[in-house]
C-alpha cells in the first residue's frame, strides 16, 4: 500500500505547469498538477474523459466557447473531444485530474510509453 499527500512538494514551477501521475490502473489515470500564474493559453482537445477538481487557487477556463470560473473546491467534467483552455490561473493553483481512457486507446498509449 502506498500513501501520499497532495499538498507536499506543491510549489509551482517558474512558468507553466508541473504534472505528476499519482495512479495508473487499467484505463484510469489520476494526476496532480501545480500551476504557475505564467501559463500560456493552449487549447486542449483530449481523447479521454477528464474530471478535474481545483484543490487550491482559482482559474478561468474557456470550455467550448463558454467562460467557466473555478475556485478551490470546484470541479468540472470534460468529456473527450471537448475543446478547452486555461485563460487565467492563480500562482500555485493545485489540481487533481481523473482521466478515463477508452480501454483499447489506453493499452496502446501504455505500450508506447512503457508504463
Q: Which helices and strands, and how do they pair?
A:
Elements: E1 17-25, E2 28-35, E3 49-56, E4 58-63, E5 66-71, E6 75-78, E7 84-89, E8 94-100, H1 103-113
Antiparallel strand pairs: 1-2, 2-8, 3-6, 3-8, 4-5, 4-7
In DSSP terms, counting alpha (H) and pi (I) runs of 4 or more, how many helices?
1
The rounded distance between the terminal residues' Cα atoms is: 19 Å
Provide the β-strand percentage band: over 45%
Q: Write down the Rg.
A: 14 Å
InterPro entries: Cupin_2 (IPR013096), RmlC-like_jellyroll (IPR014710), RmlC_Cupin_sf (IPR011051)
Domain Cupin type-2: 41-96
Pfam family, one: Cupin_2
Protein name: Cupin 2 conserved barrel domain protein
Can you characterise this structure?
The chain has 115 residues and is mainly β. It is built from one helix and eight strands, in the order E-E-E-E-E-E-E-E-H. It has one helix at 103-113, and strands at residues 17-25, 28-35, 49-56, 58-63, 66-71, 75-78, 84-89, 94-100. The longest helix has 11 residues, at 103-113.
Summed up:
By secondary structure, the chain is mainly beta. It is built from one helix and eight strands; from the N terminus they run ββββββββα. The strands form two sheets. Strands 1-2-8-3-6 form a five-stranded antiparallel beta sheet, with no helix packed on it. It has a three-stranded antiparallel beta sheet with strand order 5-4-7, with no helix packed on it.
Kindly list the characteristics that best describe this protein.
three-stranded antiparallel sheet; Jelly Rolls; single chain; 1 helix; five-stranded antiparallel sheet; 115 residues; 8 strands; mainly beta
Amino acid at each position: 500500500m502506498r500513501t501520499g499527500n497532495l499538498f507536499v512538494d506543491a510549489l509551482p514551477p517558474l512558468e507553466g505547469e508541473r504534472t505528476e501521475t499519482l495512479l495508473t490502473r487499467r484505463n484510469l489515470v489520476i494526476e496532480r498538477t501545480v500551476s504557475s500564474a505564467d501559463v500560456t493559453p493552449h487549447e486542449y482537445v483530449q481523447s479521454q474523459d477528464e474530471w478535474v477538481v481545483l484543490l487550491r487557487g482559482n482559474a478561468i477556463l474557456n470550455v467550448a466557447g463558454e467562460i467557466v470560473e473555478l475556485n478551490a473546491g470546484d470541479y468540472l467534467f470534460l468529456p473527450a473531444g471537448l475543446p478547452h483552455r486555461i485563460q487565467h490561473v492563480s500562482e500555485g493553483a493545485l489540481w487533481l485530474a481523473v482521466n478515463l481512457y477508452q480501454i483499447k486507446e489506453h493499452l496502446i498509449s501504455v505500450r508506447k510509453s512503457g508504463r
